[in-house]
Design brief:
The chain has 16 helices and no strands. It is mainly alpha-helical.
Length: 302
């Protein structure tokens, strides 16, 4: 039981989702030229840093966790794990994560790892989550860092591709988070967490969802417009974004808003998984063509 409690502190589901995002950013930048050892280091480093942030979040939120049915049995909230043990575990994992990224990847990966952790803990968890309706917007930046960490580990620079990834994941997280809040409306209300659906109502949240889903689609399609990905990616992302908007509009049921929220939540997960897979496999790599042309010219001249 104790081992399971320690594992649960790290929020394995969140780690898994962030690792998929980090790997997709890595594959997009690598364009088929994959350094498997580097990928392994990026994933381990990212997992450790995300785990450290989740443990600190569990520590800070242990009081409000007791007010929510979904979280009331968490180990720190129930006192099954001491605060000192949890924070020491966070320190060890964070140190391992940053050390691995520092030794084997790039300064940009370390930078975005630090940004993600500091925003998640310092701004979102400690400041905005309990006090502002904008907590979701702030938190979206930390959640968008893992794919950028994967990307810059390969590119060794923050270019337009990294910027598009950052924006795309930021925009995706907002309707995703609102869907969670709608599913768990009573929990968030009981804990007095001022997320938009609770503070201003679900109808207001719907209007915001439209805006951020469109913003997500536009940002995602910039990867196609800038030549990073292919036609299959563009078609699938366009159709799925249209269906996402359809779910927000036509799928809404005033008599069962929680079920509607669950459908939006599930589809948002499918959306980002498909996005991650597509940028991993439907990349555009002009380098082989250029090399082949150069080789052909050298043969002709010779």
């Amino acid at each position: 039981m104790m081992f399971k409690d320690y594992v649960s502190l790290t929020k394995p589901g969140i780690i898994f989702g962030n690792l998929i995002a980090a790997a997709s950013g890595f594959f997009l930048a690598a364009k088929g030229n994959i350094d498997w050892f580097l990928l392994l280091i990026v994933l381990i480093g990212t997992a450790c840093i995300v785990a450290a942030g989740c443990i600190i979040n569990n520590y800070v939120d242990r009081d409000i966790d007791l007010k929510m049915s979904r979280t009331k049995d968490r180990a720190l909230a129930q006192g099954r794990i001491s605060v000192g043990s949890a924070l020491f575990m966070a320190l060890v994992l964070g140190t391992i994560g940053f050390a691995l990224l520092h030794l084997y990847t790039t300064v940009y990966a370390v930078l975005f790892g630090a940004i993600g952790l500091l925003v998640y803990v310092g701004l979102y968890t400690l400041k905005y989550k309990r006090n502002s309706v904008y907590g979701t917007l702030v938190g979206s930046l930390s959640g968008a860092c893992p794919p950028v960490m994967g990307y810059v580990s390969v590119s060794n620079g923050f270019d337009v591709g990294a910027a598009i990834l950052l924006l795309t994941f930021c925009f995706w997280q907002i309707p995703h988070s609102y869907a969670i809040a709608i599913c768990r409306f009573d929990d968030y209300k009981a804990a007095n967490i001022p997320v938009l659906p609770v503070k201003y109502g679900i109808q207001t949240a719907r209007y915001h969802m439209y805006v951020y889903i469109v913003a997500f689609a536009v940002a995602a399609l910039f990867l196609f417009e800038r030549g990073f990905v292919g036609n299959v990616y563009a078609l699938v992302i366009t159709l799925m974004s249209i269906y996402w908007i359809y779910l927000v509009k036509a799928g809404y049921n005033v008599d069962d808003e929680k079920a509607w929220g669950r459908r939006l939540f599930v589809f948002s997960i499918i959306m980002i998984m498909v996005f991650s897979v597509l940028i991993s496999v439907d990349y555009v790599n002009y380098e082989p063509v250029g090399l082949a042309f150069t080789h052909y010219l050298s043969m002709v001249i010779a």
